[in-house]
């Protein structure tokens, strides 16, 4: 599948629109259309149901070290600014970027690639912001143009190796920027904080600056004590939250993959320090299996353990769940979710102040006066185990997923094409979205074969019986073959058709989206038949 086919389908059928499109759009912001909103809601609901509400705290789940409880939270997007100072986001949450003085464009330093090219004794680094084969083609085109060579004289150009990252280039004066005509237009890399700033209150001085949260997790840590005090949860337990996060990404791209406003589904799981490696393994495997169960099987999905030198300073294990999105070069994967062992870093930071690593210890970072650089809340966020009579700061396992990235992966994986005979028996191309039944935006469509002979009335009656139980759609317009195709294209698993035989024996046909198999059931049994098949 080509990505532009999916993007076109998403627009045509109302899954995703560019935000503020009538004004030319806003980069990095996307709106979910009538079908997209159902799909993403189903992703969120599957996550919440599977992770939170159906968690049975009385039984040890397969692979888990013990029983555990799950509970939820819904915190605000704007929080006390000190939260971000202690969490580290204020100091550390930045990317490096370079500006182009000629094109006025801004790029993420680590996302620009290029190749050294030489002709007639002149040497430049030809940069591009696309990767893989497209990047190679782009650099070739740009180099020919720059050296004023025709394609047939391409052998007068010498390449100094494969595509490499701009970060390997020492002298930016030698770089021909991705949108520049002359070398040397890129500025030195500068730090750029990814948090969106806003002002709280009407007076609005610098001291009233607040931030839109760049992750939902911190709301959970700062409410840890509230949850303990208001419920009867005991360690080990997890707190889940779904909500919007905001990052002022320098180069939003690849459809919704890298957006500036997006939704996260995060769990902070609190456990005893000595059991944390086992819980880390449990959550890593459990979260990987979740995507498989919802249809992301095969080579396109993988679980990748970070190398020790890739780990954050507080982590003793992190794994990414990744998907080979079609917009990436062959062999490249994009992150869907990170599962991290975070130790006691977050709770301690919010108690004591921002922490830094010193040897193998985490200590409060100090300013030049020997005081904490960012003061913590001073509140006790430890846990008292009344059975063992011990007090400790729990360790945390954090499975942090993106609802939009998961939705995009499910969209990519669902896209299928085959050939089926039309009404006249001629083979024609069919596009069908093979969503898992739990995720499909519409579960069943009901059609009268023709708009007469009492068929619409019976079809509407069936539609009304289904509607309170599942998302159903009624359609009587146009040829029935066309109606089937429209439902295939939005991934509706089952279509029910009322035909001449229904009027005689009360049976209807049910058609399966994937196999195209059709069978008859009595119209009274439609709901139970669908419910059973949707569960499978
Ligand atoms: P990346 O390296 O791709 O920027 P990250 O490692 O910074 O991602 P985390 O901070 O671990 O991401 O965030 C957890 C999850 O939130 C990611 O796995 C992803 O699904 C989602 N996410 C993060 N940034 C974005 C974004 N800009 N747009 C959409 N989803 C995002």
Strand content: 25-35%
Beta strands, count: 30
Any guess at the CATH architecture of the largest domain?
2-Layer Sandwich
Shape: globular
Radius of gyration: 28 Å
By secondary-structure content and strand pairing, the structural class works out as alpha+beta
Strand order, main sheet: write it out: 3-14-15-23-18-17-16
Describe the protein in words.
With 536 residues, this protein is α+β, with helices and mostly antiparallel strands. It folds into three domains: 70-93 and 195-410, Bira Bifunctional Protein, Domain 2 (BirA Bifunctional Protein, domain 2, 2-Layer Sandwich); 96-192, no CATH class; 430-534, 3-Layer(aba) Sandwich (Rossmann fold), CATH 3.40.50. 27% of the residues lie in helices and 28% in strands. The chain has 14 helices and 30 strands. It has a seven-stranded mixed beta sheet with strand order 3-14-15-23-18-17-16. Helix 2 crosses helix 10. The mean pLDDT is 93. Bound molecules: adenosine-5'-triphosphate. Residues 215, 247, 249, 258-259, 262, 264, 335-338, 400-402, 404-405 line the site of adenosine-5'-triphosphate.
């Amino acid at each position: 599948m080509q990505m532009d086919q999916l993007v076109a389908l998403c627009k045509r059928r109302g899954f995703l629109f560019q935000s503020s499109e009538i004004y030319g759009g806003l980069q990095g912001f996307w709106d979910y259309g009538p079908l997209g909103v159902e799909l993403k809601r189903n992703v969120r609901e599957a996550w919440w149901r599977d992770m939170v509400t159906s968690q049975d705290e009385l039984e040890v789940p397969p692979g888990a070290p013990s029983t555990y409880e799950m509970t939820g939270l819904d915190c605000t997007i704007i929080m006390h600014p000190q939260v971000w100072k202690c969490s580290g986001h204020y100091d550390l949450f930045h990317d490096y970027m370079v500006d182009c003085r000629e094109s006025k464009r801004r790029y993420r330093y680590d996302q620009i690639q290029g190749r050294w090219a030489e002709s007639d004794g002149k040497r430049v680094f030809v940069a591009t912001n696309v990767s893989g084969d497209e990047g190679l083609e782009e650099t070739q085109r740009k180099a020919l143009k720059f050296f004023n060579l025709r394609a047939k004289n391409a052998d007068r150009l010498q390449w100094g190796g494969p595509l490499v990252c701009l970060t390997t280039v020492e002298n930016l004066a030698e770089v021909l920027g991705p949108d520049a005509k002359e070398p040397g237009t890129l500025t030195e890399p500068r730090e750029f904080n990814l948090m969106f700033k806003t002002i709280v209150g009407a007076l609005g001085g610098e001291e009233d600056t607040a931030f839109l949260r760049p992750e939902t997790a911190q709301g959970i840590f700062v409410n840890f004590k509230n949850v303990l005090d208001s419920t009867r949860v005991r360690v080990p337990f997890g707190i889940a939250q779904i909500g919007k996060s905001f990052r002022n990404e320098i180069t939003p791209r690849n459809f919704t993959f890298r957006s500036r406003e997006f939704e996260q589904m995060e769990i902070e799981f609190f456990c005893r320090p000595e059991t944390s490696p086992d819980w880390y393994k449990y959550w890593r495997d459990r979260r990987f299996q979740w995507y498989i169960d919802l249809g992301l099987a095969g080579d396109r999905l993988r679980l990748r353990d970070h190398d020790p030198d890739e780990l954050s300073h507080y982590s003793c294990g992190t794994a990414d769940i990744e998907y080979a999105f079609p917009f990436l070069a062959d062999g490249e994967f994009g992150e869907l979710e990170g599962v991290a062992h975070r130790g006691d870093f977050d709770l301690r930071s919010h108690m004591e102040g921002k922490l830094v690593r010193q040897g193998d210890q985490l200590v409060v970072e100090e300013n030049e006066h020997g005081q904490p650089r960012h003061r913590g809340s001073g509140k006790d966020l430890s846990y008292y185990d009344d059975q063992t009579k011990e007090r400790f700061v729990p360790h945390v396992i954090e499975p942090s997923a993106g609802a939009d990235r998961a939705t995009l992966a499910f969209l990519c994986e669902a896209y299928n094409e085959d050939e089926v005979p039309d009404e006249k028996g001629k083979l024609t191309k069919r596009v069908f979205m093979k969503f898992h039944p739990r995720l499909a935006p519409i579960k069943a469509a009901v059609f009268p074969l023709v708009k007469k002979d009492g068929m619409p009335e019976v079809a509407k009656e069936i539609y009304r019986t289904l509607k309170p139980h599942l998302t159903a759609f009624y359609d009587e317009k146009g040829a029935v073959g066309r109606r089937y195709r429209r439902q295939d294209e939005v991934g509706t698993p089952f279509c029910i058709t009322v035909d001449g035989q229904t009027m005689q024996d009360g049976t209807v046909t049910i058609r399966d989206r994937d196999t195209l198999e059709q069978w008859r059931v009595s119209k009274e049994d439609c709901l139970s038949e669908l419910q059973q098949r949707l569960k499978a």
